[in-house]
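Limitations
The structure tokens in this dataset are predictions for the assembled complex, not deposited experimental models. Users should treat interface geometry with appropriate caution, especially where small molecules or nucleic acid strands are included. An illustrative entry is reproduced here so readers can see what is and is not provided.
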Amino acid sequence: MSVAVDRDVRDLGEFRFDCGESVPSLAVAYEAYGEFDGDNAILVCHALTGSQNVATHRSGRGAADDADTIDAPHDPAGQAGAWWNDIVGPGKAVDTTEYYVVCANVPGSCYGTSGPASEAPDGEPWGTDFPPVTVGDWTRAQRRLLDDLGVGRLHAVVGGSVGGMNALDWAQRYPDDVRRVVPVAAAARLDPQCLGIDAVARRAITSDPNWNGGDYYGDEQDRPDQGLGLARQLGHVMYLSKASMADKFGRRSAVRGGSAGGELFPADPGAAFFPYRDVESYLDYQAESFVDRFDANSYLYLTRAMDDYDLAEGYESDAAALGAFEGEALLLSFTGDWHFTTEQSEALAEAFRESEVPVAHHVVDSDHGHDAFLVEPERVGPPLRDFLSEGVEGKAVSDTAEDDEDVGGSEYAPVHNSLFSG
Amino acid sequence: MSVAVDRDVRDLGEFRFDCGESVPSLAVAYEAYGEFDGDNAILVCHALTGSQNVATHRSGRGAADDADTIDAPHDPAGQAGAWWNDIVGPGKAVDTTEYYVVCANVPGSCYGTSGPASEAPDGEPWGTDFPPVTVGDWTRAQRRLLDDLGVGRLHAVVGGSVGGMNALDWAQRYPDDVRRVVPVAAAARLDPQCLGIDAVARRAITSDPNWNGGDYYGDEQDRPDQGLGLARQLGHVMYLSKASMADKFGRRSAVRGGSAGGELFPADPGAAFFPYRDVESYLDYQAESFVDRFDANSYLYLTRAMDDYDLAEGYESDAAALGAFEGEALLLSFTGDWHFTTEQSEALAEAFRESEVPVAHHVVDSDHGHDAFLVEPERVGPPLRDFLSEGVEGKAVSDTAEDDEDVGGSEYAPVHNSLFSG
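Predicted assembly:
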């Protein structure tokens, strides 16, 4: 199947951020797949360290044109590249032969959209002089990009993790512009446990002497790789679960060589007597590959945006924030996810119900933790596909409210001995 | 009530560690409360960063003698001091008018017992040349200290957290020497999630340039306070729970002043737009007070000992490891604890049952996370008191096996959406 692909960076001109500061020129890198027919646009919102490169579409203009044309300081490599390839594409759940699918790298990130690593008007990288960004800034930048692309009302906004917060922000901020909204593994706000871990992660970055107050972009300067690597390791702990870590690693020693600490962290003589475990090897590998693809200041900026997001801000409640939205909502959550819990999605479902929005909360039984929304496409795809075409009445779409026995039951509700309680 | 108090440091002479290395002279700092009658000794094992200073006993020899005589590089201040004051003391659950209660600072720590910060034979601090330590080393050092004090068989060994592993090691290593064993909020081994977080914490320390390969004790040298502070913050995230963090902090902004990052971590210009939250303020405060009382190398050493501990090592199973133990066991666990879970204590109870040891697993319903064993004395005290005097038949002692309905039920068993599953 031939699907048109548009990969580009748009200059949206002057952009004023929620903080009150402006940049004279906001560049936004995006990818768009398929043909816009006036009514079939879907915006996909990426997660914290994701990119606009949702899927590995070959260019419709032939393989020779398939070169990546993004003027990005880092290419969307590794886990940022084709991050939802099993979900978005020709014939897939978000079918690019049917829908016009747009994904844009968020302001503050580092895959071609303006952020701390971008060039400021003075020709130097912005560093921490780049204005602080919010999820609301992301939404407003996406709105302007879509205007630029000639897209008015969206058929749907779909996003995972903080991308799901981005999707929620669309339903609150531009309620008339969205027919269907799909926050996947998301929440109305982050809980204090995750706020705490994010705060530690940021301190790991700013404590790295190479961070240097955010000024480390010079050719002669070392990057704060150790701090950023530590931050990423904490992220991965949040993305997995006790069950998935037990399955993946157990307490096994790593076969892969290397001293405890891998390549990135200093060797520790006292460690020599003890095994270098699989779980350490995994975390070290994740840290090492992440620092090659992501900017440390962007990590500070984007985690702050995530931590700051609160659907109810400026309203009396989540339900009030969603009061003007007249579309339908599908919430997808995963039982093993402690970063964005099933309980949080259920609270969100209640808010939609209270504001009389047709909503379905589809709970996926999974041990894969937060990563489930990326690694369980066969369970995410069917409800998403059917919701996009049929709404909450879609065949594969289930809802927690369908069976009152389940609501408050052990399947997903808060249990006392759980981290999810409270 | 007058209770004799003995605070001292014993030189146990040459000590060979599990790793094969020896030190010519192992100093062990201890406190002992009450009078030994030949049959009433209880060993209390402290947690990771605890000390021998279990409780605030005044000296039986009069207030004038009450000065702390411990020759410790750091006094057991802050949370290391009088850490179980509500449990141990005259008339308390571990009644020092009835029992002779001994607690010793473990090898590798920094409260007077030999460790990386102690002086090596060459007159310089050991640093990372101090031999790696294991929980087994702790037990063997305690055995030698007790020999020195004239104590043979113990009435009981009681310990919380990794101190509970220490207590388990007693039951396995010296089965004839212990009548009753009480692992509190403990486990037969740490799970991979906690292993991962500990590994990140150690990397935070070794990445701090002031750590300097473990050589930072010089008067002119800065200490690796930022790395140790980050490690401690990760510890506190593990000690709390989602519920307790929601209760304590919510998403509130801190009243206490200070830029994001507190005093210890560099200011971040990009943070100015966002609130400094209660949860951050708490974590920064914990980091700041911890670095004043604990040694970074000790933190590396003791977390490695904890991570390495495995009751079944050298045996076919946990039950086999406990096969020679002929005493009784009380396991205390807390429903909100995800560092050492109720499920892990239940697995341990099964191992005791399989090896035909009279055992009770007393589950305390608590939202306080792992900290519960320290902050819920009114719920820990009664079963502990009754077990010490009556064994598993003690009145306030409950057991999960008493009600089969509960075993595997929602009260504490693994639930699918829990971090504790798997």
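Some entries come with short summary sentences. For this one: The mean pLDDT of chain A is 90.
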